[in-house]
Amino acid sequence: MSGAAALRKPYRSLRRQREAAEFGLWVFLGSEVMFFAGALTAYAVYRALWAEAFTAAARETSIFYGTLNTAILLTSSLAMAAAAEAARAGLRRMTLRCLGLTIALGLAFLAVKGLEYREDIQKHLVPGNGFALAEPKAQIFFAFYWLLTGVHALHMVIGLGVVATLLVQAWRRRRPLASPAFEAAGLYWHFVDIVWIVLYPLLYLAGRA
Fold this sequence. Notes:
Elements: H1 3-6, H2 14-49, H3 51-58, H4 63-89, H5 92-122, H6 138-171, H7 181-205
Helix pairs in contact: 2-3, 2-6, 2-7, 3-6, 4-5, 4-7, 5-6, 6-7
């Protein structure tokens, strides 16, 4: 499909439509950044107050699962970037394949996270009665762990839904490859990955240096 087919009202050019889509997404991502910034600031304050407890608690997280998911997400970002560039170049097969790979990697991330959560529950690392660690302040670390990774996983699910929708629409030729939606989805996906890159050293590497 041509670029004209991707143009939507009230825009008079695809360039302006793409700029509006990017601007709108940046505004949305700005609100998401404020949420994570607030949570991470609270984490930093409590970690400064109880550094030893946080360090001891961080050693209980699974470095294997955390590192594996980091590699998966970095690869998924590469696949999503390739999908957006392929769509811009009008390469339909490449776009579909890269979108499919992005979805597969995203599902792999969630599967690994599910295995990690199961292990955490079995090790009694959920704050509350029966918590495995003797240090009470360690429960605060794991409260942040469950909150931050859980919200991140929710964002991943949303991203998967968006990418899957684009894949189906592109496969059925209902969405032109020139649509700004591919680049906007890529921007959101990269944001989710960047959040994980921040969480990884805070939750998995602390105390292991």
